[in-house]
Amino acid sequence: MHDYCIRLAGRDDLDGARAVMLDTVYRDFGTGYVPRWHGDIIDLAAAYLAPFRHTLLVALDGVDGEVVATAALDCRGPAHPPNPRHVAERFPSGETAQLRRVYVRPGHRRRGLARHLVAGLLAFAAADGGYRSVYLHTDPAVEGAEGFWRSLGHVVHDEREDPGGGQGIVHFEVPLPALTTSALSFLTP
């Protein structure tokens, strides 16, 4: 059985985190790197380490220390367009913790890493005190993604039901938990 270390990303983790993210957009999404969608991946420090209300978590393989999973949060709500107007209005920037880049390398999936990473992001959002909601969107064509997010939150809009199918994206809200000391334990050095 593998042991993992989940922690706040530091500068030494950024190359490994970027590799996980880029591998995911090429392999799982099949889109490759698209600057308007994936620009944060190139400068992770500016996107997630520098802004006070943003964070990036990583899971390290306990055997070789390699970054094998990522999860990020920022305070930007979904933009309209390309997202539906009512989704953007429901989740305004500044008040919304948006979950992003929850990616696990294929050889490390089905071990609870994504669930633990998301719990860390939710603890971070609760500790912030300024977020009133947690939002994310996912591509249901990615194996396991829709089922995973349905287990944690509820659908607020499924674009597959729109005339023409929209972007085919499913939008979710995840409950913002109460802040607990134990939930924050790995967020402190």
Structural summary, described in words:
- The protein is α+β, with helices and mostly antiparallel strands.
- It has a single domain (4-187), classed as Aminopeptidase.
- The chain is 31% helix and 24% strand.
- The chain has 6 helices and 7 strands.
- The chain has helices at 14-27, 35-42, 44-49, 85-90, 113-128, 145-152; strands at 4-8, 55-61, 67-74, 96-104, 133-138, 154-158, 170-174.
- A 7-stranded mixed beta sheet has the order 1-2-3-4-5-7-6, sandwiched between helices.
- A hairpin with a 5-residue loop joins strand 2 and strand 3 (67-74).
- The radius of gyration is 16 Å and the shape is globular.
- The two termini are 26 Å apart.
- The model has no long low-confidence stretch (mean pLDDT 93).
What is the spatial order of strands in the main beta sheet?
1-2-3-4-5-7-6
* The CATH H-level homologous superfamily: Gcn5-related N-acetyltransferase (GNAT)
Q: How many distinct helices? A: 6
Count of discrete structural domains: 1
> Can you tell me the CATH architecture?
3-Layer(aba) Sandwich
By helix and strand content, what is the structural category? alpha+beta
* CATH top level label: Alpha Beta
So what's the overall shape?
globular
Overall mean pLDDT score?
Answer: 93
Helix percentage range: 25-40%
Order of helices and strands: EHHHEEHEHEHEE
- Biggest β-sheet description: 7 strands, mixed
Per the CATH scheme, the topology name is: Aminopeptidase
Radius of gyration: 16 Å
Low-pLDDT windows of residues: none
Give the strand tally. Answer: 7
